[in-house]
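Per-record layout

source: Solemya pervernicosa gill symbiont
name: Acetylornithine transaminase
length: 228
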Amino acid sequence: MNTRFSSIMPITNRPETRFVEGKGVWLMDEMGRRYLDFMQGWAVNTLGHSPKVVVDAIAEQAGRLMNIGPAFYNEPMVALADQITAHSGLDEVFFANSGAEANEGAIKLARKWGTKQKNGAFEIVTMQNGFHGRTLATMSASGKPQFELLFEPKVPGFIKVPFNDIGAVEAVIGEQTVAVMLELIQGEAGVIPADLDFVQQLRELTSTNNCLLTLTAMDSEAKAVSPR
């Protein structure tokens, strides 16, 4: 490893390029070379690098109020939650820092619901080739073959079935099933959408079996947990 970066833990094979600036779809390294960025922060920088509207909003908010902790309300939190619920049809919002953290919250919420409402049910049905994050629980929930032998033993309680196969889901639902969890579009599997019929049948199946339906979208970092 280059000694310039020896204090940083190697978690992936990074090139030795060091970026210093970004604007829109362009990145610039310390030598002044420009790069067209097709990754955009692994698909989360949908507005590009340092868009003025985002920079101005961050600066304005930082000048007024920064982090006061989750035990208190703040005005932007309330305003954004109101907008999301008004346009999504959902009742409540839980804000998280990442897709993995949001999915961890969804898993905890489902299991808490199972403890209170379904005699301790805890199993969650997930999809083969699905991706839900890189924490231990979300890797356990994911159906990526690359994750199968990593960081064993995994968190138990996740049953994986083929995507878009309602019969496979129905076959594994039992008394301990608390939720079915899936991406509406499997991103890392190759941008594969769930069939509309499959999703509608899942809604009916989970309602009939007193289970939750959890829909995730890692790239947009949004989760929806729907009651029966």
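summary: The beta strands are 19-23, 26-29, 34-36, 123-127, 158-161, 177-183, 185-186, 192-193, 212-217, 222-226. Residues 92 and 119 are 25 Å apart (CA to CA).
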